[in-house]
Amino acid sequence: MQPTIGKLIQQASTILLGKEEVLKLSIACMLARGHLLIEDLPGVGKTTLAHTLAKLLGLHYQRIQFTSDLLPSDIIGVSIFDREKQSFRFHPGAIFSQLVLADEVNRATPKAQSALLEAMEEEQVTVEGDSMALPRPFFVIATQNPAHQIGTFPLPESQLDRFLMRLEIGYPGRKAERDLLCGRDRREMLREMEQVIAPSELITLQQQADKVYIAEPLLDYCQDLLDFSRSSPRIHQGLSPRAGLALLRGARAWAFVEGRDEVIPEDIQAVLAPIVGHRLQSTNEAGRGEGLGLADYLLQSVAVP
Confidence band (pLDDT; 50, 70, 90) for 150? Predict the structure, then answer.
């Protein structure tokens, strides 16, 4: 494992106990310049994960609590008339941060959710015809409650597709939970935690991850996975070219996290479910929810080079 990445995971593991795999995938997502969706029950550490990454990476961090009455201007910002200057002055919203936590994103209406689309895709926002660049690096980590909970609005496919990965944290193991119950308050530990790397170093790591080599047979493997998803009668809608690009970026980043300078089949397999699970829908299901099973079906059905 890369020494810097290893130190990041070691420090983060003191806050989020027993979740090294989730932490590695989250860091790989950021190295691949992707946005992260965490879907799980309340109280398992979704917000804590986002805050921990922001603190360790030295990123300017803001949290937006998504509610049913949230407006796009609450996210992007608003122009207010300045009487002294007799002109409107733009007051930036929370989106103008390096790491934005969209907490319980599916509790807001689709109109409010859509305020994130341009920012996530183009790293800019447009207000009154003027485009404004967002800080670099820029990440959105969104948390989402399960769709069956009261007061949720399902994310549209176009919004889901902007997230490179979707993860579930899950309950801690028994030993990790005992340490959590008997240990110090995680909020207090977060306040004391020190930055491991600077945002400029993170950008350098992203550039290094981009250079990880992928051989032609593995490019064929990725395309075979895409083609099979488009021809299988079990899958309602096949994976798009954007999903294919996300798979390559994620595999490169995972290989880099593991300390390799070239991708092996296991790297593609490690990131496939988090990257394509939220993009797949079964033909036998009216709603979502079988994405992880369909990702496993792809892996079992396509030959490994």
Answer: low
For 91-140, what is each residue's pLDDT tens digit? 888 899 999 999 988 888 888 888 888 888 888 888 777 788 899 999 99
- Beta-strand ranges (E) seen in the chain are 35-39, 61-65, 77-82, 87-92, 99-103, 124-127, 130-133, 139-144, 163-167
SS (H, E, C) 105-142: HHHCCHHHHHHHHHHHHHCEEEECCEEEECCCCCEEEE
- pTM value? 0.90
Same domain for 83 and 165, yes or no, is yes
Do 64 and 94 touch, CB atoms closer than 8 A?
yes
Are residues 189 and 237 part of one domain?
Answer: no
**What is the distance between the alpha carbons of residues 65 and 17, in angstroms, rounded to a whole number?**
25
- Same domain (yes/no): 107, 48: yes
Quote the mean pLDDT of the chain.
Answer: 88
> Total domain count for the chain?
2
State the Cα–Cα distance between residues 131 and 177, nearest whole angstrom: 46
> Are 37 and 142 spatial neighbours (Cβ–Cβ below 8 Å)?
yes
Same structural domain, 90 and 236: no
Residue 147: predicted pLDDT: 60
- Give Cβ neighbours of residue 274 (< 8 Å, ≥ 6 apart): 25, 29, 165, 166, 167, 250
